[in-house]
Amino acid sequence: MSYSNISKMNFEVSGEQKIFLDKIDRVCKSIRDYETRCYLDEKINDRVIPEFGEIGMLGCPISKKYGGLGYDILTYLFAIERIGREGNSLRTFFSAHVSIGQMVLQNWGTEEQKKKYLTNTTNGTSIMGFALTEPDAGSDPKRMTTTFEERGGNYILNGTKHWVGNGTFAKVITTYARGPDGKISAFIVDASSKGFDAQEMHNKMGLLTVKNAEITFENCLVPKQNLLGKIGNGLSVAFSALIDGRLSVAAGAVGVMKDCLDESIRYSQKREQHGSVLAKKQLIQEHLATMIVNIESSRWLVYRAGMARQKLHDYVEGLKEKDANWQDALNRENKEYSALRNKADRLAAIAKLHATNAAFDCANRAVQVFGSYGYQKTSRVARHFLDSRAIVIYEGANEVLKLKIASLEMGAKYDAY
Ligand SMILES: Cc1cc2nc3c(=O)[nH]c(=O)nc-3n(C[C@H](O)[C@H](O)[C@H](O)COP(=O)(O)OP(=O)(O)OC[C@H]3O[C@@H](n4cnc5c(N)ncnc54)[C@H](O)[C@@H]3O)c2cc1C
Predict the structure, then answer these.
(1) Fewer CB near the terminus (10 Å): N or C of the chain?
(2) Taking all residues of the chain, what is their mean pLDDT, rounded to a whole number?
(3) Is the pLDDT of residue 203 over 90?
(4) Which among 210, 228, 246 is the end of a domain?
(5) How many domains does the chain have?
(6) Residue 283 sits in the same domain as residue 381
């Protein structure tokens, strides 16, 4: 057994990271009240893009070459954890724009694609979204019916995607469609393309400051140079994006739990019933202790998964420098790549499964600590409760992640889906 990975783990933040994370903290605090008002009014928080853009958060893990800050994945996850304290709704904006938006382009795009599309996304001129799910293809994207065919110098897309985060105003989305040979490919689509339509989805239970769209492609024209990755390799692109998406959801969930704990401590120390403050009651302390254990266990799972994801990233970036045909080298026969990808995939799934279940549990406990005062949307804990219901469903429903975790442990012949 090797203990080398454990001894190399170092989650201390450097001076430079601290300055950045302090800026994130300041912006989070400055928009807190406005985020609440926007949530209650069910509208997008229009201060997010300018204020987080100003401090570079719109391109935190994106290379400086494309206007980003060039931070590593752990630093990005620390920032996402802090943003998560303001709620899953705010955090979802960043997951959609950065984790399953920009990072997919950074990882799989050609130099021309990155120059053309990424640069505008790091300065906030253009916001991104990720469109994989369809009305009849959720947990099982292989059922997708969106199609593409080649015509002239273009691809023509037809089909419907739904639940696309940021989809009502994103200028660029990545999407996935099935070709005439049945294989799925990935594409970068300009929202201004002919045949592209996005409509807001209404009546959500929570996540009220982020908007989701149903997107229809009706003979939508996508230039050939907007193919993302190799033809027929779309699911590999999508599944690698979901590793980043899951990590951001898990990191955000840690922030949610921290806020549930802080709110519960604050409230229980001042609310008196039966002769003393709630904080002195043993059954209330049981809620607080469970939240604390959930925060600590989830946080380390996120950090460990983030490190595994960074190693995968470094390996692929190294290949890109050495080999113009780097995408051909990313296959099951490449044992080093397979091992790094499986590890990142497995650890991200574990972190997401654990942290989201734990966040929903923490939010539920926090509402209980607040009693009737926690049953009003004006309280932070009520909003955490409503929003945390979504995170056990999206970026891989938790049942499906359990299947992934078990089959990755036992090998491909035990694939349950
Ligand atoms: C708020 C929100 C935001 C979203 N944002 C995006 C986005 O930006 N982009 C995007 O592409 N999609 C997005 N989604 C879609 C999301 O990823 C899907 O909802 C999710 O993958 C589940 O798919 P589904 O809803 O169709 O449920 P289904 O796949 O129909 O699953 C229903 C239930 O069955 C379970 N289940 C499915 N298969 C199995 C199995 N083999 N064994 C046991 N149980 C199983 C699931 O776990 C779930 O509990 C979003 C969804 C929500 C709610």
Answers:
(1) N
(2) 96
(3) yes
(4) 228
(5) 3
(6) yes
Which residue range forms the structural domain that includes residue 276? Answer: 234-414
Ligand 1 atom having least distance to the Cα of 139:
29
**Pocket of ligand 1 contains residue 212 by CB under 6 Å:** yes
The CATH number of whichever domain residue 89 belongs to comes to 1.10.540.10
The rounded distance, in Å, linking the Cα atoms of 254 and 74 is: 14
Q: How far apart are CA 143 and CA 114, in angstroms?
A: 29
Q: Establish whether residue 165 lines the binding site of ligand 1, counting it when its CB lies within 6 angstroms of any ligand atom.
A: yes
Q: Are residues 327 and 404 in the same domain?
A: yes
Confidence of residue 4 (pLDDT cuts 50, 70, 90): low
Q: Which residues of 256-265 are buried (b: 16+ CB within 10 A; e: fewer)?
A: bbbbbbebbb
Give the nearest ligand 1 atom to 129 CA: 8
CATH assignment of the domain containing 248 = 1.20.140.10
pLDDT in tens, 267-325: 999 999 999 999 999 999 999 999 999 999 999 999 999 999 999 999 999 999 999 89
Could you tell me the sign of the dihedral formed by the alpha carbons of 391, 95, 38, 379, in that order?
positive
Contact (Cβ atoms closer than 8 angstroms) between residue 144 and residue 126: no
Give the integer Cα–Cα distance in Å for 214 and 274.
51
Query: Ligand 1 centroid vs 137 CA: distance in angstroms?
Result: 8
Retrieve residue 357's tokens.
């279940």
Cβ(390) to ligand 1 under 6 A?
Answer: yes
Q: What is the DSSP code (8-state) at residue 13?
A: P
Any ligand 1 atom below 6 A from CB of 21 = no
